[in-house]
C-alpha cells in the first residue's frame, strides 16, 4: 500500500499566516504540521508516499523532507495547481499509485491515541484482503457541522450525509481514508460538485453503493484535531505541548518512528543530527544514548 498526503490549498482561513507559507508547514508546537500526517502513514507501515501541494509550496516541502531516505522512506511530489477537491488526489497520483492500494490523509489533520498503529493495520488489512474501502470516524458533540456516517454493528456504512439537520449518528468522517486500487477509476468518473470540486464524498458514495464501505471509529482515548483555523491551530499546539511536557516523549517524531521500525540505524541517525541544536535533536540524542 502507498500513501498520499494532500497538502494543497491556499489556507485562507489562516491568513495572514498563510500568505507566505503553506498551512501544512506551519508549526504545531515543536514540529511542522506535515510531520503529523506523515507519522500516521509511517505507523501504518507505508513507506512510499506522494506529497501533493501547490507549485509555489512544493519546493519548501522538498527542502524540508527531501527524498525521504533520512527516515527510510521514499517520498515523491506532485502539483495540484488549483484546489479542485480531495478526490483529485487519486487522479494526480495515478502513476504513483500504479497497481497498489492507497491511503489518503489530509495534511492538516492530527491523530493521536494509544493503539493507533493497530487500528491502522486493521484498516489496511481490510482493504488488502476484502477490496473494501475504510474511512475513519470520530465521535463529535455537534455532528451537524460535519459529514456524518451512519453505521451498523458490523461497521458497515449505511449512509453519509453532509452537515445534516437531523444527524443519524455522532461519527464525523475525518481526513483519513484507505482505498483499494479501484479508487483511481472511481475518482476519474466523479463529476464536479456545485463548488466545482471532485468531492471525496462522491468516492465514498460509490463504495457505499457497492456495499464496500466500512467505518473505523476512533472512540474514547483518541484525539482528532483539524488545524484549519487560528483557534484550532492554537488548541493543537497546546494539546501537543501538554502531552510532551507531561510524558517527556515526542509525538510524531519521524526519526524515532523510523528507528523503532529499523528503517534506519542508530549510526545513520547519529550522522544526521551531529552538530544540530535544539530540543528536538536533543531528544533524538537521548534516544540513542
TrEMBL record:
Keywords: Magnesium, Metal-binding, Nucleotidyltransferase, Transferase. One of its GO terms (molecular function) is glucose-1-phosphate thymidylyltransferase activity. Its cofactor is Mg(2+). Transmembrane segments: none annotated. Residues 2-241 form the Nucleotidyl transferase domain. It comes from the Bacteria. Its EC number is 2.7.7.24. It catalyses: dTTP + alpha-D-glucose 1-phosphate + H(+) = dTDP-alpha-D-glucose + diphosphate. InterPro entries: G1P_thy_trans_s (IPR005907), NTP_transferase_dom (IPR005835), Nucleotide-diphossugar_trans (IPR029044). The keyword Disulfide bond does not apply. The keyword ATP-binding does not apply. Pfam families: NTP_transferase. Catalyzes the formation of dTDP-glucose, from dTTP and glucose 1-phosphate, as well as its pyrophosphorolysis. Belongs to the glucose-1-phosphate thymidylyltransferase family. This is Glucose-1-phosphate thymidylyltransferase. It comes from Psychroflexus halocasei.
Amino acid at each position: 500500500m502507498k500513501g498520499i498526503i494532500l497538502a494543497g490549498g491556499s489556507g485562507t482561513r489562516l491568513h495572514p499566516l498563510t500568505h507566505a507559507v503553506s498551512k501544512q508547514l506551519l508549526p504545531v508546537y515543536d514540529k511542522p504540521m506535515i510531520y503529523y500526517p506523515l507519522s500516521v502513514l509511517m505507523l501504518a507501515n507505508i513507506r512510499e508516499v506522494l506529497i501533493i501541494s501547490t507549485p509555489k509550496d512544493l519546493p519548501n516541502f522538498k527542502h524540508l523532507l527531501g527524498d525521504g531516505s533520512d527516515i527510510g522512506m521514499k517520498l515523491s511530489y506532485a502539483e495540484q495547481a488549483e484546489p479542485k477537491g480531495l478526490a483529485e488526489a487519486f487522479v494526480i497520483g495515478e502513476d504513483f499509485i500504479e497497481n497498489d492500494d492507497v491511503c489518503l490523509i489530509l495534511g492538516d489533520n492530527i491523530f493521536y491515541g494509544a493503539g493507533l498503529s493497530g487500528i491502522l493495520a486493521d484498516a489496511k488489512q481490510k482493504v488488502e484482503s476484502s477490496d473494501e474501502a475504510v474511512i475513519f470516524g470520530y465521535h463529535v458533540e455537534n455532528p451537524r457541522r460535519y459529514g456524518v456516517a451512519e453505521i451498523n454493528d458490523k461497521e458497515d456504512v449505511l449512509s453519509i450525509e453532509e452537515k445534516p439537520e437531523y444527524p443519524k449518528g455522532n461519527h464525523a468522517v475525518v481526513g483519513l481514508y484507505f482505498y483499494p486500487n479501484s479508487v483511481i477509476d472511481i475518482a476519474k468518473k466523479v463529476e464536479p460538485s456545485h463548488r466545482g470540486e471532485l468531492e471525496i464524498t462522491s468516492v465514498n458514495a460509490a463504495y457505499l453503493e457497492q456495499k464496500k464501505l466500512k467505518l473505523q471509529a476512533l472512540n474514547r482515548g483518541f484525539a482528532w484535531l483539524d488545524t484549519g483555523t487560528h483557534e484550532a491551530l492554537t488548541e493543537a499546539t497546546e494539546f501537543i505541548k501538554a502531552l510532551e511536557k507531561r510524558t517527556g516523549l515526542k509525538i510524531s517524531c519521524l526519526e524515532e518512528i523510523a528507528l523503532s521500525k529499523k528503517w534506519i540505524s542508530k549510526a545513520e541517525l547519529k550522522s544526521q543530527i551531529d552538530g544540530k541544536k535544539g530540543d528536538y535533536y536533543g531528544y533524538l540524542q537521548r534516544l540513542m544514548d
